[in-house]
Structure prediction request, 160 residues.
Amino acid sequence: MAIYWIDAGVLITAKNGHYGFDLVPKFWLWLHGAVEVGNIRMPKIAFEEITDGNDELARWCKTRKTIGYFCVKSGKPIQEHYGTIADYVNQTYKPHQVAEFLKGADGWVIAHALETQGFVVTEENVKHNKSKIKIPLVCKALSVSWKSTVDMCKELGAKF
Prediction:
């Protein structure tokens, strides 16, 4: 079974864009089912980036915290992978970029994917905001596969 690790931006972009709750409610039903069976997962720190808010997305996520693999804690193997990621970005990027990257969940999403040999799902584009460390660039350097939300949906056979 392929495992897709989503960053917070995937759900935020979905809610604010083409998959809005009122536009494509079947996306959210499908997502719930994919989380329930474990195809789609989210590290706890990424989950908390969303649930710190009080909007519709935060409420949607909070009610699903205990289903499947939606809020996955980071054990020792994940922490070791995160250390590898931190070492890489420290050696490759400027200190202010490293500090910004390491305070967020992106490295943890990549660490979980490394541990499970899964895919990182992100909407980040390497062409925009060159001052920010991009998930796809770190994934490429560490031989981790990444996908867009659309690619993940296609590969998992989503129909809306």
Summary: The chain has a mean pLDDT of 94.
